[in-house]
Amino acid sequence: MIVILNKPLNLNLKHFFNPLWLFLLLLPIISSCAKRPSVSIPSACLVGNNPCLQGKVIVEMVTNRGAITFELDGENSPVTAGNFLDLINKGVYDKTIFHRVIKIPSPFVVQGGDPFSKYPVTPEINYGKGSFISPKTGQARFIPLEIKLKTEDVPRYNQLITSPRELSQLQLVHQRGSLAMARSQTLNSGSAQFYIALKSLPELDGRYSVFGRIVGGMDVLDSLKEGDIILQATMIKNK
User: Fold this and answer.
1) C-alpha angle with apex 216: 178 to 94, nearest 5 degrees?
2) What does each C-alpha distance from 196 to 40, 70, 118 come to in angstroms?
3) Looking at the domain assignment, is residue 127 inside a domain?
4) Is the predicted pLDDT of residue 209 greater than 60, yes or no?
5) Element (H, E) at 145
6) pTM across the whole model
C-alpha cells in the first residue's frame, strides 16, 4: 500500500494571505492490491509497488491533546488510503508534529505528516517539504493525484477536475473533518503529508485527493495547535 511522489514545495506564512487561488496552487497540503471477483482494480494498483487498500479501515491517531479516529476509504481512494495506512503501519507518523494549523482569518486546515518533523524538533528546519524516504531503497515514495467520480468505476489519476458537471459527481469532497493528501504543484507529488479540513472547502475539490474522514474526536481536531504532536497512529479495525 505505497506510492511515490515529488517533493512538496515549502511555503512561507505570507502565502497564506495571498489570493486563495495562489494558495491552492502552491499548498503542500492530501499492499499491492489483490484482485477480487467483480471488483474493478485501478491500474495504479497493478503496477510497481503501489500500496492499495480495498474496502475501509478505522485508524486512530493519538495526539498530545487526545485521540482522533479516521475512516480510510479504500473503496474510492485505494492508492492514497493504502499509502497512508502503510505509513501508519511503518510508524512514520509517530512523534511527528502538526507543522501547519490555519484558523485565521477563518478555519482552513490542520496539516501534518512530514517525516522529518519528529519530536523533539530541530528549530532551524523549515518543516513542510519532507517526503517519505524508503529505508530499503533510499528513494522518496510518491503517489499520484487520485480522484473518483460517482459515474466511473475506478479513480482518475493525475487529472485535475475542473468542470462544474464533473465536480458535482465527485465521490469524495472536502467536508469538515475530511482527510486529504498534501502535494505540491506537481500532480504526482503526494507522499506522506496530509491535511484535515476544518470546514467545508469546495475550492479544493477536484484538486487534492480526499481519502478518509474523521469519525471520532472532532473536538480534538478543533483544539490542535501548530507544533502539537502525533504520539502514535495505529489501525484499530477493519470494516
Assistant:
1) 80
2) 28, 10, 19
3) yes
4) yes
5) none
6) 0.82
